């Protein structure tokens, strides 16, 4: 292969999942059951600011530029 398998995941949804996980972990005590977890996930998903999502989308160009500049290696993303 000309391109090694060490290229980073450029998908911004990974950062969205991370944000969602942080938000759900702020609930205390932990969810009592799967239904409560689902409810919290939906609540927190809907609570993520639109600006956060737009920033992820608009960062895609720079993500690709950095990935190319580092030959598919580690980037700040």
From TrEMBL:
Superkingdom assignment:
Eukaryota
InterPro entries, A to Z: RNaseH_sf
The molecular function terms in GO held by this entry are: nucleic acid binding
Q: What is this protein called?
A: Tc1-like transposase DDE domain-containing protein
Question: Which species is listed as the source?
Answer: Littorina saxatilis
